[in-house]
Design brief:
By secondary structure, the chain is an alpha+beta fold. About 20% of the residues lie in helices and about 35% in strands. The protein has 2 helices and 6 strands. The longest helix has 17 residues.
Length: about 110
Amino acid sequence: MFYAQGYFRQRLDDKVGSAKSICNRRERASDGTCIGKHGEPVTIQIDTRGSSIRAKVWRVKVGRIDLLLLDSNVDGNAPEDRELTSRLYGGDGRVRIRQELLLGVAACAR
């Protein structure tokens, strides 16, 4: 998942913890958007009971490995679905289930 706001750095000073958010900007994705066979950006779509969730696929090089990330902040998604990939932690059980559904179905579509 491409968590734009979900990661943070933790630090312990004299037994007191602190966290600093890290903003992951889409333009920092080293290789950028995955491009399909016909030159179009790669996207996935999953159908849920009430709607469809779309996600753009980003490709980032990690050493010699391509890491594929899903970004649901795309046109056509409902506002709540656009937020699915914004934070690693947060939201309620419904948000977590929808995140897992997006990730699980996308992994099978590979």
